[in-house]
Amino acid sequence: MLTIRRGDAIVATLSEPREHPIGPWLVALGAGLWGTESAWRIPLNDVFDADVLVFWEHVILVLCALPLVIPRLGELRRVSARALGYLVFSGVAGSAVGAVLFTLALKYGHPTVVNIVLNLQPLLSTGAAFLLFGDRLARGFAPWAALAVLAGMALVGFAPQTAGAHVGLIDAGTWFALACALCWGLATVAGRGTMVEMSLPLAAGLRVIVGLVSMAVIIVVRGKVGADVLWPAAAAAKSSKVVGQLLLLAILSGGIPLLAYFKGLALTRASTAGYFEMMQTLVAVVITWAFFNDPLLWEQVLAAVVLVAAVTMVQRAQASTALGRPEPLAVPFARLVRRRDDT
């Protein structure tokens, strides 16, 4: 409980904000839809370079986002420089660089190893949320969080290995996955910092616009501005199919989950959100089974059940603690002093 005073008089008594029960599950919905991207990203990897693919993905996202962003640009006058900084970092690290790293990880690494490494992401977001936002970790948080991470790793670790795949080898794909986990983990925290001050359509739309600008810079710096690179012969040979896959990747596996994810972040602490993002791993395993004929073992099903149960208990453990704030709560009265009420 927070008591706001002016001198000796109590002006207001505020309850500290709590995590909304639906918030983490909106994050899970967004992450789960992101997990469907393997169905489109893996075949498109054979057509485009990784950065070119992510560039086209952002072009489509920005075209969809502009009608939502333009009418709300006036809101930026009320947004602090700190929140704008979080937005830019989220767009660069999460939307652009993270997507490129993930695409490269899938291209040069074994999918099983990549998905195991990405399950380290919640640990990174928890640490960053604790340091930046002062997220409070409930007593029951640590064991359930550890179980969630282990279940996520087991979910992909039990997957049957393809013949000749050196899954234990630390290759370029592993390092790309580690860098991706770092980018996405920190982007989760930055997204929470953004949503404290921005409306959902504005925050989600500006994130993909920042992502497109970042990708355009990367494309230019790497000299990939020629028509034969942006739209290679492999794409021209099956344009209709490629365009369809790009639309599915950008909208079904990109734009729609981003809206659900950002709405969830507005109602959820960053330390909790990271574990619900592991639903992306669960859906990715189902996608490889449904689209690429990978066997689905009973051990994986059991790991999936444990994962869902563990993240549910993470949310229940954290529900009783107050939400951390990216910056001190602004009070619209001069010379007010906030102090915590011990009662």
Number of strands: 3
- Strand sequence of the main sheet, in spatial order? 2-1-3
Main sheet attributes: strand count, strand direction, barrel closure: 3 strands, antiparallel
Strand content: under 5%
Outline the low-pLDDT stretches: 1-7, 9-17, 162-167, 327-343
Task: Describe this structure as you would to a colleague.
This protein folds into two domains: 1-17 and 328-343, no CATH class; 18-321, no CATH class. It has helices spanning 23-34, 38-45, 50-69, 81-108, 111-118, 121-133, 141-157, 172-195, 200-221, 227-230, 233-236, 239-266, 270-276, 279-292, 298-318; strands at residues 2-6, 9-14, 337-340. The longest helix has 28 residues, at 81-108. Helices cover 67% and strands 4% of the residues. The protein has a three-stranded antiparallel β-sheet with strand order 2-1-3, with no helix packed on it. It has 343 residues and is mainly alpha-helical. The N and C termini lie close together (8 Å). β1 and β2 (9-14) form a beta hairpin. α2 packs across α12 (239-266) and α6 packs antiparallel against α13 (270-276). The radius of gyration is 21 Å and the shape is globular.
Summed up:
With 343 residues, this protein is mainly alpha-helical. Helices cover 67% and strands 4% of the residues.
Q: Any chance you could write out the topology, listing elements then pairs?
A:
Elements: E1 2-6, E2 9-14, H1 23-34, H2 38-45, H3 50-69, H4 81-108, H5 111-118, H6 121-133, H7 141-157, H8 172-195, H9 200-221, H10 227-230, H11 233-236, H12 239-266, H13 270-276, H14 279-292, H15 298-318, E3 337-340
Antiparallel strand pairs: 1-2, 1-3
Helix pairs in contact: 1-12, 1-14, 2-12, 3-4, 3-9, 3-12, 4-8, 4-9, 5-7, 5-8, 6-8, 6-13, 7-15, 8-12, 8-13, 9-12
